[in-house]
Design goal:
Acetoacetate decarboxylase-like; seven-stranded mixed β-barrel; 246 residues; four-stranded antiparallel beta sheet; mainly beta
Length: 246
């Protein structure tokens, strides 16, 4: 008779492969991160198509695009773009993350497996030309999905240490069984906790190209720009919390 396996659940790592996990455990830490953020009013009907039934849009519906550069993190350095909608879970305001694009596999694994963050691999760039900052997203290279420009002019009050930006995502685990679509569907909250930072505002706007039905970021179109800001900060991504099992 062969030798019985010795790998118990208690011995397994928190992610795969369980004997050599692909990434560290939460919380995840970031230093010197750069954020271009664009807030705008969007179309209610198309925004409602993107969010689970447990969430509600405020009136007017608002969305956001972030194009970010993380020069140091416990995932390693990478760039990331985030598209999302501002929502309510009951009376709690949250940032619902609908699409993300980034250029490194490690944070894709961690973000998708732990929190259900809908990440794909693509091209993300944050650049500066004279007094103008800009960012853009492509997938594949040369197929522009969105872009944004900003001229930072005025400093804003720095957020206090410990300020939390509350986000939520939909974690979907597909089923390996025939005639069963999902093994698990959960609505999860994850919080970005600021440790230090500075924020600048100025004239700017974002634009969606509408060139890809495979990455339909244009389904959150810009109806009216609200603000464009640039932030440099250190922050921590906290462990998540399950809000609902669908």
């Amino acid at each position: 008779m062969g030798l019985k396996g010795k790998l118990s659940k208690a011995k397994m790592g928190t992610n795969m492969p369980v004997d050599a996990p692909a990434y560290a455990n939460a919380p995840f830490h970031f230093k010197g991160s750069r954020f271009l953020r664009f807030d705008y009013e969007t179309n209610a009907d198309t925004a409602a198509e993107l969010i689970p039934e447990q969430l509600q849009l405020p009136d007017p519906p608002t969305a956001f695009l972030l194009i970010n550069d993380y020069p140091w993190s416990t995932f390693g350095p990478y760039k990331e773009a985030i598209l999302g909608v501002n929502v309510l879970f009951g009376s709690q305001p949250l940032h619902y993350l609908s699409h993300l694009m980034l250029d490194s596999s490690c944070p894709i694994l961690g973000g998708r497996e732990i929190y259900g963050v809908p990440k794909k691999m693509g091209i993300v760039e944050l650049v500066q030309h004279e007094d103008v900052m800009a960012g853009y997203v492509e997938r594949p290279k040369g197929i522009r999905i969105c872009s944004g420009v900003l001229r930072p002019e005025q400093p804003l009050d720095s957020p206090a240490a410990g300020t939390a930006l509350n986000a939520c995502t939909l974690r979907v685990i597909p089923s390996p069984e025939k005639d069963k679509v999902h093994s698990l569907v959960e609505l999860i909250q994850e919080d970005m906790i600021l440790r230090s930072g500075e924020v600048w505002s100025g004239p700017g706007n974002c634009h969606f190209a509408g060139t890809s039905v495979l990455d339909p970021w244009h389904n959150l179109p810009v109806a009216k720009m609200i603000s464009a800001t640039y932030m440099v900060c250190d922050w921590t991504l906290s462990p998540g919390k399950i809000l609902a099992t669908l």
